[in-house]
Design brief:
It contains 15 helices and seven strands. It has 381 residues and is α/β, with parallel strands linked by helices. It has three domains: 192 residues, P-loop containing nucleotide triphosphate hydrolases (Rossmann fold, 3-Layer(aba) Sandwich); 77 residues, no CATH class; 80 residues. A five-stranded parallel beta sheet has the order 2-3-6-1-7, with helices on one face. The protein has a two-stranded antiparallel sheet with strand order 4-5. The longest helix is centred in the last third of the chain and has 25 residues. The chain starts with a helix and ends with a helix.
Length: 381
Protein backbone atom coordinates (compact mmCIF):
# COMPACT_ATOMS: atom_id res chain seq x y z
CA UNK A 1 0.00 0.00 0.00
CA UNK A 2 1.47 3.40 -0.98
CA UNK A 3 2.44 5.61 1.96
CA UNK A 4 0.02 8.35 0.88
CA UNK A 5 -2.94 5.95 0.97
CA UNK A 6 -1.80 4.43 4.26
CA UNK A 7 -1.59 7.90 5.77
CA UNK A 8 -5.05 8.80 4.47
CA UNK A 9 -6.57 5.63 5.94
CA UNK A 10 -4.87 6.31 9.26
CA UNK A 11 -6.43 9.78 9.33
CA UNK A 12 -9.85 8.27 8.60
CA UNK A 13 -9.42 5.80 11.47
CA UNK A 14 -8.39 8.64 13.78
CA UNK A 15 -11.40 10.67 12.66
CA UNK A 16 -13.75 8.12 14.24
CA UNK A 17 -11.72 8.09 17.46
CA UNK A 18 -11.61 11.89 17.66
CA UNK A 19 -15.30 12.23 16.82
CA UNK A 20 -16.39 10.07 19.75
CA UNK A 21 -13.70 11.33 22.14
CA UNK A 22 -15.72 13.84 24.22
CA UNK A 23 -18.77 11.57 24.39
CA UNK A 24 -19.39 8.44 26.46
CA UNK A 25 -20.79 5.37 24.73
CA UNK A 26 -21.12 7.02 21.33
CA UNK A 27 -18.54 5.00 19.38
CA UNK A 28 -21.22 3.38 17.17
CA UNK A 29 -22.76 6.76 16.34
CA UNK A 30 -19.34 8.18 15.47
CA UNK A 31 -18.61 5.27 13.16
CA UNK A 32 -22.03 5.54 11.49
CA UNK A 33 -21.50 9.26 10.82
CA UNK A 34 -18.01 8.55 9.47
CA UNK A 35 -19.45 5.95 7.08
CA UNK A 36 -22.01 8.48 5.83
CA UNK A 37 -19.39 11.17 5.27
CA UNK A 38 -16.88 8.93 3.49
CA UNK A 39 -19.58 7.58 1.17
CA UNK A 40 -21.18 10.98 0.62
CA UNK A 41 -24.54 9.63 1.73
CA UNK A 42 -27.06 10.83 4.31
CA UNK A 43 -27.79 9.49 7.79
CA UNK A 44 -30.71 9.82 10.19
CA UNK A 45 -30.17 9.28 13.91
CA UNK A 46 -33.36 8.08 15.58
CA UNK A 47 -33.70 8.28 19.34
CA UNK A 48 -34.72 10.30 22.34
CA UNK A 49 -33.45 13.88 22.84
CA UNK A 50 -30.26 14.46 24.81
CA UNK A 51 -28.18 11.69 23.22
CA UNK A 52 -25.50 13.96 21.69
CA UNK A 53 -26.83 13.78 18.12
CA UNK A 54 -26.36 17.46 17.24
CA UNK A 55 -23.04 17.68 19.12
CA UNK A 56 -21.67 14.74 17.11
CA UNK A 57 -22.75 16.37 13.83
CA UNK A 58 -21.12 19.68 14.70
CA UNK A 59 -17.91 18.00 15.83
CA UNK A 60 -17.79 15.95 12.60
CA UNK A 61 -17.94 19.17 10.57
CA UNK A 62 -15.24 20.76 12.72
CA UNK A 63 -12.92 17.78 12.30
CA UNK A 64 -13.04 18.11 8.51
CA UNK A 65 -13.27 21.91 8.50
CA UNK A 66 -16.53 21.73 6.54
CA UNK A 67 -19.10 24.49 6.18
CA UNK A 68 -21.83 23.59 8.64
CA UNK A 69 -25.52 24.40 8.92
CA UNK A 70 -27.82 23.39 11.78
CA UNK A 71 -31.54 23.87 12.20
CA UNK A 72 -34.45 22.53 14.27
CA UNK A 73 -37.58 22.03 12.20
CA UNK A 74 -41.11 22.64 13.47
CA UNK A 75 -44.40 22.29 11.63
CA UNK A 76 -44.30 26.06 11.13
CA UNK A 77 -40.76 26.37 9.71
CA UNK A 78 -40.75 28.39 6.49
CA UNK A 79 -38.44 27.67 3.52
CA UNK A 80 -36.75 31.08 4.00
CA UNK A 81 -35.41 29.96 7.39
CA UNK A 82 -33.48 27.11 5.76
CA UNK A 83 -32.74 28.30 2.24
CA UNK A 84 -32.46 32.06 2.79
CA UNK A 85 -34.86 34.98 2.27
CA UNK A 86 -35.69 36.45 -1.09
CA UNK A 87 -33.55 39.39 -2.21
CA UNK A 88 -36.09 42.25 -2.27
CA UNK A 89 -33.90 44.48 -4.44
CA UNK A 90 -33.50 41.73 -7.01
CA UNK A 91 -37.23 41.01 -6.88
CA UNK A 92 -37.95 44.67 -7.76
CA UNK A 93 -35.89 44.12 -10.91
CA UNK A 94 -37.93 41.03 -11.77
CA UNK A 95 -35.29 38.57 -10.56
CA UNK A 96 -36.06 35.69 -8.19
CA UNK A 97 -32.93 35.37 -6.02
CA UNK A 98 -32.37 34.02 -2.52
CA UNK A 99 -29.78 35.33 -0.07
CA UNK A 100 -28.20 32.01 0.88
CA UNK A 101 -25.34 33.24 3.07
CA UNK A 102 -24.92 30.95 6.11
CA UNK A 103 -27.95 28.92 5.05
CA UNK A 104 -28.39 25.30 3.92
CA UNK A 105 -27.56 25.93 0.22
CA UNK A 106 -23.98 26.86 1.23
CA UNK A 107 -23.37 24.00 3.69
CA UNK A 108 -21.19 20.94 3.11
CA UNK A 109 -22.38 19.19 6.27
CA UNK A 110 -25.90 19.91 7.53
CA UNK A 111 -27.67 18.83 10.69
CA UNK A 112 -31.46 18.97 10.57
CA UNK A 113 -33.17 18.18 13.87
CA UNK A 114 -36.71 16.78 13.84
CA UNK A 115 -36.38 16.29 10.09
CA UNK A 116 -39.83 14.71 9.72
CA UNK A 117 -41.54 17.92 10.79
CA UNK A 118 -40.88 19.15 7.25
CA UNK A 119 -43.95 20.63 5.54
CA UNK A 120 -44.66 19.94 1.86
CA UNK A 121 -42.76 23.00 0.57
CA UNK A 122 -39.61 22.12 2.52
CA UNK A 123 -40.02 18.40 1.85
CA UNK A 124 -39.90 18.85 -1.93
CA UNK A 125 -36.79 21.04 -1.68
CA UNK A 126 -35.07 18.51 0.61
CA UNK A 127 -35.69 15.65 -1.81
CA UNK A 128 -33.90 17.29 -4.73
CA UNK A 129 -31.09 18.68 -2.59
CA UNK A 130 -30.37 15.27 -1.04
CA UNK A 131 -30.71 13.27 -4.23
CA UNK A 132 -29.40 15.61 -6.94
CA UNK A 133 -27.54 18.27 -4.90
CA UNK A 134 -29.68 20.84 -6.68
CA UNK A 135 -32.06 23.35 -5.14
CA UNK A 136 -35.06 23.91 -7.42
CA UNK A 137 -36.28 27.32 -6.33
CA UNK A 138 -38.85 29.17 -8.35
CA UNK A 139 -37.25 29.77 -11.75
CA UNK A 140 -33.74 28.79 -10.65
CA UNK A 141 -31.72 25.62 -10.33
CA UNK A 142 -28.97 26.12 -7.76
CA UNK A 143 -26.22 23.52 -7.50
CA UNK A 144 -25.39 23.09 -3.81
CA UNK A 145 -22.16 21.77 -2.19
CA UNK A 146 -24.00 19.57 0.35
CA UNK A 147 -21.92 16.45 0.94
CA UNK A 148 -23.80 14.76 3.79
CA UNK A 149 -26.99 15.54 5.66
CA UNK A 150 -27.12 14.31 9.24
CA UNK A 151 -30.69 14.32 10.48
CA UNK A 152 -32.33 13.46 13.77
CA UNK A 153 -35.78 12.36 14.84
CA UNK A 154 -37.47 10.88 17.88
CA UNK A 155 -39.23 8.26 15.78
CA UNK A 156 -39.61 6.60 12.40
CA UNK A 157 -42.20 8.44 10.25
CA UNK A 158 -45.49 6.67 9.51
CA UNK A 159 -46.96 9.25 7.15
CA UNK A 160 -46.92 8.10 3.48
CA UNK A 161 -45.80 11.54 2.27
CA UNK A 162 -42.60 11.25 4.35
CA UNK A 163 -41.53 7.83 3.07
CA UNK A 164 -39.61 9.23 0.09
CA UNK A 165 -37.63 11.48 2.43
CA UNK A 166 -36.95 8.60 4.85
CA UNK A 167 -35.72 6.48 1.95
CA UNK A 168 -33.13 9.15 1.04
CA UNK A 169 -31.19 8.20 4.17
CA UNK A 170 -28.99 5.24 3.33
CA UNK A 171 -28.01 4.99 6.99
CA UNK A 172 -30.63 4.68 9.74
CA UNK A 173 -29.08 4.43 13.16
CA UNK A 174 -31.19 3.86 16.27
CA UNK A 175 -29.53 5.71 19.15
CA UNK A 176 -29.79 4.18 22.62
CA UNK A 177 -29.25 5.94 25.96
CA UNK A 178 -25.86 5.36 27.59
CA UNK A 179 -25.71 1.98 29.36
CA UNK A 180 -25.97 2.00 33.17
CA UNK A 181 -22.42 0.73 33.64
CA UNK A 182 -21.16 3.96 32.00
CA UNK A 183 -23.24 6.48 33.93
CA UNK A 184 -20.40 7.50 36.22
CA UNK A 185 -18.14 8.06 33.22
CA UNK A 186 -21.00 9.97 31.57
CA UNK A 187 -21.28 12.36 34.52
CA UNK A 188 -17.56 13.16 34.35
CA UNK A 189 -17.68 13.70 30.57
CA UNK A 190 -20.72 15.98 30.70
CA UNK A 191 -19.12 17.98 33.50
CA UNK A 192 -16.02 18.55 31.35
CA UNK A 193 -18.15 19.61 28.38
CA UNK A 194 -20.15 22.01 30.57
CA UNK A 195 -16.86 23.43 31.89
CA UNK A 196 -15.78 24.17 28.30
CA UNK A 197 -13.03 21.58 27.91
CA UNK A 198 -14.38 20.48 24.52
CA UNK A 199 -15.51 23.70 22.87
CA UNK A 200 -14.09 23.27 19.39
CA UNK A 201 -12.39 20.39 17.58
CA UNK A 202 -9.21 21.10 15.66
CA UNK A 203 -9.46 19.99 12.00
CA UNK A 204 -7.97 16.57 11.37
CA UNK A 205 -9.03 16.19 7.74
CA UNK A 206 -10.23 18.43 4.93
CA UNK A 207 -13.01 18.03 2.42
CA UNK A 208 -10.31 17.20 -0.13
CA UNK A 209 -9.27 14.26 2.09
CA UNK A 210 -12.92 13.17 2.21
CA UNK A 211 -13.21 13.34 -1.58
CA UNK A 212 -10.02 11.25 -1.90
CA UNK A 213 -11.43 8.65 0.49
CA UNK A 214 -14.65 8.64 -1.50
CA UNK A 215 -12.73 7.85 -4.71
CA UNK A 216 -10.76 5.17 -2.88
CA UNK A 217 -14.00 3.33 -2.09
CA UNK A 218 -14.06 1.95 -5.60
CA UNK A 219 -10.59 0.46 -5.28
CA UNK A 220 -11.55 -1.69 -2.28
CA UNK A 221 -11.57 -5.42 -3.09
CA UNK A 222 -15.12 -6.65 -2.42
CA UNK A 223 -14.72 -10.09 -4.02
CA UNK A 224 -14.52 -11.99 -0.73
CA UNK A 225 -17.84 -10.77 0.65
CA UNK A 226 -20.26 -10.70 -2.28
CA UNK A 227 -21.54 -14.28 -1.98
CA UNK A 228 -22.03 -13.92 1.78
CA UNK A 229 -23.78 -10.57 1.20
CA UNK A 230 -26.25 -12.17 -1.25
CA UNK A 231 -26.89 -14.96 1.26
CA UNK A 232 -27.64 -12.44 4.02
CA UNK A 233 -30.05 -10.56 1.74
CA UNK A 234 -31.90 -13.84 1.11
CA UNK A 235 -32.07 -14.62 4.84
CA UNK A 236 -33.40 -11.14 5.60
CA UNK A 237 -36.06 -11.57 2.90
CA UNK A 238 -37.07 -14.88 4.54
CA UNK A 239 -37.48 -12.94 7.81
CA UNK A 240 -39.80 -10.46 6.09
CA UNK A 241 -37.17 -7.70 5.91
CA UNK A 242 -37.13 -6.33 2.37
CA UNK A 243 -34.09 -4.43 1.17
CA UNK A 244 -34.75 -2.47 -2.02
CA UNK A 245 -32.54 -2.99 -5.05
CA UNK A 246 -31.12 0.51 -4.68
CA UNK A 247 -30.15 -0.07 -1.04
CA UNK A 248 -28.70 -3.50 -1.89
CA UNK A 249 -26.32 -1.87 -4.35
CA UNK A 250 -25.46 1.16 -2.24
CA UNK A 251 -24.57 -1.09 0.68
CA UNK A 252 -21.38 -1.96 -1.22
CA UNK A 253 -20.14 1.60 -0.69
CA UNK A 254 -20.78 1.29 3.04
CA UNK A 255 -18.95 -2.05 3.17
CA UNK A 256 -15.98 -0.54 1.33
CA UNK A 257 -15.99 2.47 3.69
CA UNK A 258 -16.01 0.14 6.69
CA UNK A 259 -12.85 -1.52 5.36
CA UNK A 260 -11.17 1.86 4.84
CA UNK A 261 -11.95 2.90 8.43
CA UNK A 262 -10.09 -0.22 9.56
CA UNK A 263 -7.17 0.85 7.32
CA UNK A 264 -7.77 -1.98 4.83
CA UNK A 265 -8.38 -2.00 1.09
CA UNK A 266 -9.88 -5.49 1.19
CA UNK A 267 -13.36 -6.04 2.63
CA UNK A 268 -13.93 -8.90 5.07
CA UNK A 269 -17.03 -10.48 6.58
CA UNK A 270 -16.76 -8.15 9.55
CA UNK A 271 -17.51 -5.21 7.25
CA UNK A 272 -20.94 -6.71 6.51
CA UNK A 273 -22.02 -5.53 9.94
CA UNK A 274 -22.79 -2.15 8.34
CA UNK A 275 -26.02 -3.77 7.14
CA UNK A 276 -27.42 -3.24 10.63
CA UNK A 277 -27.79 0.48 9.81
CA UNK A 278 -28.82 0.00 6.17
CA UNK A 279 -31.32 -2.87 6.02
CA UNK A 280 -33.79 -2.10 8.87
CA UNK A 281 -36.73 0.25 8.53
CA UNK A 282 -37.56 0.47 12.24
CA UNK A 283 -36.25 -0.52 15.66
CA UNK A 284 -37.85 -3.98 15.62
CA UNK A 285 -36.29 -4.76 12.26
CA UNK A 286 -32.95 -3.44 13.54
CA UNK A 287 -32.96 -6.09 16.27
CA UNK A 288 -33.86 -8.81 13.76
CA UNK A 289 -31.13 -7.74 11.35
CA UNK A 290 -28.56 -7.66 14.13
CA UNK A 291 -29.52 -11.20 15.21
CA UNK A 292 -29.13 -12.47 11.63
CA UNK A 293 -25.73 -10.80 11.27
CA UNK A 294 -24.54 -12.25 14.59
CA UNK A 295 -25.48 -15.72 13.36
CA UNK A 296 -23.90 -15.33 9.95
CA UNK A 297 -20.71 -13.35 10.53
CA UNK A 298 -17.58 -14.36 12.40
CA UNK A 299 -16.80 -10.88 13.57
CA UNK A 300 -15.22 -9.06 16.46
CA UNK A 301 -18.58 -7.72 17.62
CA UNK A 302 -19.99 -11.22 17.80
CA UNK A 303 -17.04 -12.44 19.84
CA UNK A 304 -17.28 -9.48 22.21
CA UNK A 305 -20.96 -10.12 22.74
CA UNK A 306 -20.36 -13.81 23.48
CA UNK A 307 -17.52 -13.02 25.87
CA UNK A 308 -19.59 -10.43 27.71
CA UNK A 309 -22.41 -12.94 28.22
CA UNK A 310 -19.97 -15.63 29.38
CA UNK A 311 -18.30 -13.22 31.80
CA UNK A 312 -21.66 -12.20 33.32
CA UNK A 313 -22.65 -15.87 33.76
CA UNK A 314 -19.29 -16.69 35.37
CA UNK A 315 -19.66 -13.98 37.99
CA UNK A 316 -23.25 -14.93 38.77
CA UNK A 317 -22.35 -18.63 39.13
CA UNK A 318 -19.26 -17.83 41.20
CA UNK A 319 -21.35 -15.98 43.81
CA UNK A 320 -23.65 -19.00 44.15
CA UNK A 321 -20.78 -21.50 44.33
CA UNK A 322 -19.01 -19.49 47.02
CA UNK A 323 -22.20 -19.48 49.12
CA UNK A 324 -22.36 -23.31 49.20
CA UNK A 325 -21.09 -24.66 52.55
CA UNK A 326 -21.69 -28.40 52.03
CA UNK A 327 -21.75 -30.94 49.24
CA UNK A 328 -24.24 -30.00 46.53
CA UNK A 329 -24.87 -32.34 43.52
CA UNK A 330 -25.33 -29.30 41.26
CA UNK A 331 -21.61 -28.63 41.61
CA UNK A 332 -20.91 -31.58 39.30
CA UNK A 333 -23.13 -30.01 36.62
CA UNK A 334 -21.37 -26.67 37.13
CA UNK A 335 -17.97 -28.35 36.70
CA UNK A 336 -18.97 -29.94 33.37
CA UNK A 337 -20.55 -26.70 32.18
CA UNK A 338 -17.47 -24.60 32.97
CA UNK A 339 -15.16 -27.10 31.31
CA UNK A 340 -17.27 -26.82 28.12
CA UNK A 341 -17.27 -23.01 28.34
CA UNK A 342 -13.49 -23.07 28.83
CA UNK A 343 -13.11 -24.94 25.53
CA UNK A 344 -15.37 -22.42 23.77
CA UNK A 345 -13.44 -19.40 25.07
CA UNK A 346 -10.15 -21.08 24.18
CA UNK A 347 -11.38 -21.50 20.59
CA UNK A 348 -12.30 -17.81 20.41
CA UNK A 349 -8.81 -16.87 21.64
CA UNK A 350 -7.27 -19.09 18.95
CA UNK A 351 -9.55 -18.05 16.06
CA UNK A 352 -9.61 -14.28 16.45
CA UNK A 353 -7.07 -12.02 14.78
CA UNK A 354 -8.09 -9.13 17.04
CA UNK A 355 -5.52 -8.70 19.79
CA UNK A 356 -7.97 -6.95 22.14
CA UNK A 357 -10.45 -9.84 21.86
CA UNK A 358 -7.69 -12.38 22.37
CA UNK A 359 -6.59 -10.63 25.61
CA UNK A 360 -10.22 -10.47 26.80
CA UNK A 361 -10.65 -14.18 26.10
CA UNK A 362 -7.44 -15.03 28.00
CA UNK A 363 -8.61 -12.97 30.99
CA UNK A 364 -11.91 -14.84 31.01
CA UNK A 365 -10.07 -18.16 30.71
CA UNK A 366 -8.21 -17.24 33.88
CA UNK A 367 -11.53 -16.51 35.62
CA UNK A 368 -12.94 -19.85 34.45
CA UNK A 369 -9.83 -21.59 35.76
CA UNK A 370 -10.36 -19.99 39.18
CA UNK A 371 -14.01 -21.11 39.26
CA UNK A 372 -13.13 -24.68 38.22
CA UNK A 373 -10.50 -24.79 40.98
CA UNK A 374 -13.11 -23.54 43.47
CA UNK A 375 -15.64 -26.19 42.39
CA UNK A 376 -13.06 -28.98 42.63
CA UNK A 377 -12.14 -27.83 46.12
CA UNK A 378 -15.81 -27.84 47.16
CA UNK A 379 -16.17 -31.33 45.68
CA UNK A 380 -12.98 -32.52 47.37
CA UNK A 381 -11.27 -33.57 44.16
Amino acid sequence: MPASIANLLHLAHRFVEELSKPFVGREEEARAIALAIITGEHIVLIGEPGTAKSALARRAAELINARFFKYLLTRFTEPDELFGPLDINALKQGKYVRITRNKLPEAEIAFIDEIFNANSAILNMFLTIMNERILYDGYNEIKVPLWTMIAASNQVPDEPELQALYDRFLYRHFVKPVAENKWLELLDAVWKIEAGYYIHAEPLLTMDHIRSLNKLLFEVDLSRIKEKLVKIYAILEDHGIHVTDRRKGKALKAIAASALLEERTVATEEDLLVLKIIAPRDKDEAEQVYAVLMDEIKAAERYLRELAEIEANIREAKQYIMSITEFEPRLVDYLRSFEAVRDKVRRIAEETSDEAIRRRALDILAEIGDVITLIRRKLGI
